[in-house]
What does this fold into?
Amino acid sequence: MLQELKEAYGFIFEDDLIEEIGEVGSLQQVAAGEKIIEIGDYVKMMPLLIEGAIKIMREDKDGDELLLYFLERGDTCAMTLSCCLGQTKSEIRAIAERDTKLIMIPIEKMEEWTSKYKSWRDFVFESYHARLNEMLETIDTIAFMNMDQRLMKYLQDKAKINQNEVIAATHQQIAYDLHTSRVVISRLLKKLEIDGRIKLQRNSIEIMEL
Amino acid sequence: MLQELKEAYGFIFEDDLIEEIGEVGSLQQVAAGEKIIEIGDYVKMMPLLIEGAIKIMREDKDGDELLLYFLERGDTCAMTLSCCLGQTKSEIRAIAERDTKLIMIPIEKMEEWTSKYKSWRDFVFESYHARLNEMLETIDTIAFMNMDQRLMKYLQDKAKINQNEVIAATHQQIAYDLHTSRVVISRLLKKLEIDGRIKLQRNSIEIMEL
DNA sequence: AGTTCTTTGTAACCCTTGTTACTGTACAAC
DNA sequence: GTTGTACAGTAACAAGGGTTACAAAGAACT
It folds into this structure.
């Protein structure tokens, strides 16, 4: 575990802190598609992302969903951070986008490290900063872009996060992420295919040029 | 200044910190409608809101605007916080919604206080937490609500923040905040008036029941 | 009072997106 | 093979909301 930890966080954290993380953190493996945090959960551990990717979803009372953003190696979930510090319920759902390795830290350590390690403090602030910016980008997307543009951005993001030009997803799944209907996605995807920007197969979409 | 500072923040900050703030902070008065921060500004001071209210706006490259949220007494701008710590440009615009009193803190103190005062650390974390939640609420609003619901929420929020059942605004101004057109707002407002929920006057809207 | 500017009301129209419904096709299970 | 199910394509229609255009009403100024 220490080896992976150093690879992902070695440039950020002091050696002392890395060592402490190694002592109190527990390595967790999560398979793609598995749920990590559900809305309303009380969060007792803070995850550090070592490998893989996580997708963060929002849901309203009617069950309507929306993809907020993806997390990658080196990220932590600032929403969870927030919950840990405030001891409140999770406002979001976290689902493994790929097979993912996490180190889970007991929240008691949070407070301690915050006063003890400058690098930890900086990391927490930097995480908040990054997440606020992700949220801003999400707002830009849904407020200022049309569905066709949003779909293109989604395909790009998803290809990047999965490091694969072929996206494994059904039209229905995409529709859930973008909070629209399957028919709309099929329609727009077909148009993208006609324009030669993607190739459609069953259960997958190949990106040609976007 | 110390008196006002204590009233707004006395329950949060230690006495030592209050005193330090008094020494290095400078009181600023901003009239309603005045701009406090513009997009792209490098922020060199961090504002603590003593009195009044500030509205935080987002704008995209085409000049389309959107109201993100309001700040009230006891709040600070986490986006600015973010900018200060990261030394990056502001992503948002801040405009005084009412006559407003601020205490401006030089950012050099941020780092210092963060390690020195636990109450300051907690305040900063709590600010991030609050702002993330505001952003989530904003996302919920634009993603899951129709324009009529958004308009009602806007009127409620605006009445609350101005502590006045009569909202001073033209239809055009509302349209800018909600990123829609004047005609749409006029249409929906008229419907609300017919339903007996508001009363329309020139340049103002009186809320009856929402 | 007359002129001008700002604000509001409203109609007509269009585009995007959401909905319903039905068809065809791939794929797995039997 | 046949059957069943999930997925995708498409048409037709409805609704929300954005656009254009014009009229009417206040307010401000002369």
Q: What stands out?
A: The radius of gyration of chain A is 18 Å.
